[in-house]
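HUMAN: Now follow token order:
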Amino acid sequence: MTAGVNPLHLMARLAQSGLFDDHVVYERPGTWTFAGGVLGEVVLDGDGTVRSRWNDEEPTERRWSGRPSDALDEAFASCPFREWNAYGWIAFEFATAAQATRNAARLAHLIVPRTEVRIEACQAHVTSVDAAEADQVAHLLTEPTPPRLGTPVPVGVRSGGDRYRTQVAQAVSEIGAGQYQKVIVSRRLPIPYPVDVVSTYVRGRTANTPARSFLLNLGGFQATGFSPEVVACVDGTGTVMTQPLAGTRAFGRGAKEDATTRRELETDPKEIFEHAVSVRTSQDELYQVCEPDTVQVTGFMSVKERGSVQHLGSSVSGLLAQGRTSWDALDVLFPAVTASGIPKAEAIEAIGRLEDEPRGLYSGAVLTISHDGAMDAALVLRALYADGDEAWLRAGAGIVTGSTPDREFEETCEKLSSIAPYVVPRT
């Protein structure tokens, strides 16, 4: 790796190389990882099937029932490799409470890569089962040529307002009737041209300050995004952490205006209530899988700057109880309370009615899971999705007592502006 080379550009160069049809880029603080090619694969579908394949063997398919996290756990238990890391995504509909729908949509897609590149402290480490491929990757890492990047064509974010305001008004009415306390209502924004997803990733990441970032192409489905928060992070010692963000104002409009909106955020009763109930819910979820006296909140209601928006944020952590695993932690924390609502089951049911279409990867997670139980799962927001020539964005807002349709629509525009200005057409 050449000194001074941008890791973001190296990730893009690997994605553009043509060496890997399937790949995942995952950035966490201090570490960039490129996972390329398929050595192993697990696919979970909502029709009740899970497919696994390892090395070049024929895939096996079986029926699954119960918790989807258990289905994935069992699939990876059959992995023949002594040590492995897997990368991929899970859909919003992966949530246990949503399984009654049993639609045929894909719920999860993860790969154990053939080649893995990890960049830490400006040092690149390449591991691969294919020596020739490892040599090609090593050459790419020392090549000084920057990645090929197109020019963004910004996407307008203000269409669809009337329908969204109607949905918000309906949610406020249902909250007033006591059906639930909070629900996140989202809207889909089609992009009117095919997208260069890799260029969009580089352009957008340069302008954003995410908790995690990702770029993926699995089975032809592509996505990239700048995650504002972590759903579940579990280390090798069993410490689990989640980072609920709730409460939003615009950011990046100049020092004076940013300071004004920050004061609004920190003093607005609606935003404070929305955040406090989200933190309390995260605590209650961790109590289900952690030693109770280890559950704690740190950095309560601190302001997190995430691209075009700023949020109220906290960290909630604990130590997994004896016999509990990272899959158990994911099961109780997913979907993120900040992307579903309170109580979760009632909020998920409301989302199905109010939005009237599956979310798929939006408000799901991109994650990595390892043989030792370590897991890192990033909430998928501020993202772009592409399937063939079709591409779209999506954003939502947390609806609680005191929400107004106009303000919540404006919040979705602010969130969409984290990525809409950086979308690059495919040429």
